[in-house]
Amino acid sequence: MGERSPPPAGRRTRLVSSLVLGQRACEVALDPERGALEWTEQPQPRGGRESCAVPISEIIAVEETEIDKKQCNSGKWQKMAKPHAFTASRPKHLLVYINPYGGKKQGEKIYEQKVAPLFSLASISTDVIVTERANHARDNLLEVNLEKYDGVVCVGGDGMFNEVMHGLIGRTQKDSGIDQNNPKAPLVQCNIRIGIIPAGSTDCVCYSTVGINDPVTSALHIIVGDTQPLDVSSVHHHDTLLKYFVSLLGYGFYGDILKDSEGKRWMGPVRYDLSGFKTFLSHHYYEGTISLLPASHAVGSPRDKKHCRSGCHICKQSKQRLEIEQKKNGGEIKGDDEGEWKVIRGKFLAINIANISCACPRSPKGLAPAAHLADGSSDLILVRKCSRFNFLRYLIRHTNRDDQFDFSFVEVYRIKKFQFTSKHLEDGDCDAKKMQKNRFGHFCRDHPACCCIPPSSTWNCDGETLDCSTIEVTVHCQLMKLFARGIERNSTLEAVQRQLC
After folding, report:
1. Which residues contact residue 34 at a Cβ distance below 8 angstroms, ignoring those fewer than 6 apart?
2. Model confidence at 333, in pLDDT bands (50, 70, 90)?
3. Contact criterion met (CB below 8 Å) for 187 and 145
4. Residues annotated as catalytic (active site), given as ranges
5. Is residue 154 located within the same domain as residue 252?
């Protein structure tokens, strides 16, 4: 029988009822003041009571069952007429884009069988668009009326998320009158959240922000209205915007893998393994000049082993600093050029910039284990020219407990701005077509008789190729928001990482 405890003045009513849960008699309390549903097992003959609680914000639906119809009474709790009464941040209307071709081509099936029923159960209405071509979602977001939506959901891999991200950022800057081609332009934050339903080859962004690439888990984060800010970096070539990225910008090894795999799309995800093996054997290095602006505001370092987790205090500090800056500048996020630039020259097997850890099932620690989701900085990883054996040792350390940065040929920096110029461009020696012909197969790079032109690599920008080797990168603090809460402690990824540490 339900009963009400008389509330003190100004407090909402606390509801208490005796129910049977899993064949056990329990006292169940709905406490709006604490925002929790609690149940306590009734005292057993030998004493002792077990109590559990769950936040109201994480309750999606309640199913009523009857153990004995004869004992049924009319005092049962009824389903709430307003499912969003306790959770103002929950979405009510979502725009959903499905990539039917990504990964194993299971996007539509995953959404219809695993996600759509949950959205329906949570009283969330959706407008679903199945994409028919590359950049379909991006182009649509530049024109669609976004005011009627509480969020945008992408079903697919990192490429699909990339499309949606570019569409939302582009739309926000367009509506705000911001010139995206200006590298120093203060970008405006996107207020609409993005939800990621993983259905791709690697699902790196989802894995690094949720801790697992599971469609149901991601759907639940969307339903309960979780919010996770995310840093985004822009890539410019002179005064032209090339791309935005949130996970990896790689030159050399990862750029060559992507470039070689482009002609093998018919092979599916296995193409990356083949191209990776081929690129490893080629062992190309690239010469150039790097200029970096250290992130003086950032707390910690790329090697401190302090992983970004749900409720991360470092990201919270960045949010507070950002809010103060926005108040000062009327809502704009202005670029920060303060600090002394550092210049590095050399020959590199790989130049990687990681906004997030870039964790995935194959590399649970990721390329940058201590990178944060929303601290306004990126981790720059430089792998200088070394032997194939040493480079293999470096790659293997991404899969075990050893420190992948503990090599004399590896350097890592926490940065907020970055510039790169290839050596052949500095010398005015730029015949791109000729260099592409000599891309693979040279194992005599240092032999005096070999007259090979020093090649230029391709930038791998979140899985998209950028052919301009000279670039400028700027980190934009918390430019986007996801339906996520960061990696929770004791999550699947957390457990795997503990085994590796």
Report:
1. none
2. low
3. no
4. 158
5. no
